[in-house]
Specification:
Blueprint lengths: L1 E4 L6 H5 L6 H18 L1 H12 L10 H6 L6 H19 L6 E6 L2 E9 L2 E5 L9 H13 L3 E5 L10 H9 L4 E3 L3 H10 L9 E3 L4 H10 L5 E2 L7 E6 L5 H12 L6 E6 L4 H13 L5 H9 L2 E4 L3 H11 L3 E5 L3 H7 L5 E4 L5 H6 L25 E9 L1 H17 L3 H17 L1
Parallel strand pairs: 1-11, 4-5, 4-7, 5-6, 7-8, 9-10, 9-12, 10-11, 12-13
Antiparallel strand pairs: 2-3, 3-14
Length: 430
């Protein structure tokens, strides 16, 4: 990892940059795939799966028998772990349910707000070298709690042309039956337009690589919503001498192993911590099965020392990390100062891995600085907030003249007339 000691604010722009390709670089590929999927449907999905995943598919949809059969091939230990995670994620997301809000703003004018589920949602589950079956829990559970009536799940096939048993088992456990062996740009296009086999949806959820991220943004051109821009994973750890160097290194590597375009950052106010963490990274890296991937990510990553807490906090909020670990003696200072972060982990015994899997919070989070304006996935992500109102005769009498005056001032006579007609009828009744 590159080291920077007390960088000036002039250097921050370079330090804040992510190691990702630009949107413009990837856009032509995404545009072409979308056009082909819209035109050729399933045939295009199979062709792109052969091209990108090197797999020839006969069937795109996973049968119910395949979903049910996965349970017999999963160990009891893993089933127990998945169930524990499911319980915690359900528990946390159930607490996010809110009742109807209602108020009589003035006599005879009642306004209220209710939440209704998005009917059709698509869940993208990353696959390839690390199939993230945990993401199914993070997306399917709040979708079910919200009451979404149609849930579509797409995930790229492995070399055998199937989905891993862990993915199939978790999907079945979460009550998802519409599961498709399609990944990448073509999966996002399929859920955008619909094909002979895959239904179109109204909103697409889930993380992915840079191509998937751009594809999701491209889908918004066709009246499909997305959860957020969620690309390559990232982690920022702020630590001082109260942190355990081995834990800090392990946390940094846990995100570095996601992919070569991941980025991890260590921010500290202690120069003594740097060599300790660097030594631990070297030692732990040697033992990782995905050390080649992690090594490339580490090359994109940085250790930064600041003189003061104020500078460290300012830099962190400008970076807006997806995952943010606080291991500081004065942790309250850093907790209270958080302005931009996807999910925050506090203390030596709160690894980011806990949020990835089983503590209960959601791991689908904004990356690439989008934490400045986006929230991570939560129950409300699957709901629409709708407002209602009912006005009585007394109410329209009380509010009517104000509406007439404002409409007239804006030059919208028909708006004014909609009230005036009612008020005149009420005068006639009287």
């Amino acid at each position: 990892m590159q080291q920077f000691l007390q960088p000036s604010t002039d250097e921050w722009a370079a330090l804040l940059a992510r190691p990702t390709a630009s949107y413009n670089d990837l856009e032509p590929v995404v545009e072409n795939v979308f056009a082909e999927v819209k035109k050729r449907g399933d045939d295009a999905l199979k062709a792109y799966t052969a091209q990108f995943d090197h797999v020839e598919l006969d069937e795109i949809r996973v049968s119910q028998a395949e979903l049910d059969g996965a349970a017999s091939r999963i160990s009891k230990e893993l089933k127990s772990a998945i169930q524990l995670a499911k319980n915690n994620i359900e528990g946390f997301h159930l607490t996010q349910k809110t009742p109807k809000v209602s108020v009589e703003t003035q006599a005879g004018v009642v306004c209220w707000q209710e939440k209704r589920p998005i009917q059709k949602v698509g869940l993208y589950i990353p696959g390839g070298s690390a199939p993230l079956f945990s993401t199914i829990l993070m997306l399917a559970i709040p979708a079910q709690i919200a009451g979404c009536s149609e849930i579509v799940l797409c995930s790229p096939p492995n070399k055998a042309g199937t989905l891993p048993d862990e993915v199939l088992y978790t999907a079945a456990l979460c009550g998802i039956s519409k599961v498709y062996t399609v990944g990448g740009i073509q999966a996002i296009a399929a859920m955008t337009f619909g094909t002979e086999t895959i239904p179109n949806v109204y909103k697409i959820f889930g993380p992915g690589n840079q191509f998937v991220t751009v594809a999701k943004q491209w889908a918004t051109r066709f009246n499909v919503a997305i959860d957020m821009p969620a690309g390559p994973s990232e982690l920022l750890v702020v630590a001082d001498n109260s942190a355990v160097p081995a834990y800090v290194a392990a946390d940094l590597l846990s995100q570095a192993e996601h992919g070569p375009d991941s980025q991890v950052i260590l921010v500290t106010t202690s120069t003594e911590l740097l060599p300790k963490v660097a030594d631990e990274i070297k030692a732990q890296l040697k033992e990782l099965p995905r050390k080649e991937v992690a090594t490339k990510a580490i090359e994109n990553s940085k250790m930064i020392v600041f003189d003061t807490d104020e500078l460290a906090i300012d830099f962190i909020n400008q970076y807006g990390p997806e995952h943010y670990i606080i291991c500081m003696e004065n942790e309250d200072l850093y907790i209270n100062a958080v302005q931009n972060a996807g999910s925050v982990f506090v203390g030596n015994y709160t690894p980011e891995s806990a949020g990835d899997y089983a503590s209960g919070t959601n791991h689908t989070l904004p990356t690439n600085g989008y934490a400045k304006q986006y929230s991570g996935v939560n129950l409300d992500s699957f709901l629409k907030q709708m407002t209602f109102q009912k006005i009585s005769k007394e109410g329209i009498k009380g509010i009517g003249s104000a509406i007439e005056a404002m409409a007239a001032a804006e030059g919208l006579q028909a708006h004014k007339n909609a009230v005036t007609l009612r008020l005149n009828d009420l005068k006639d009744e009287a």
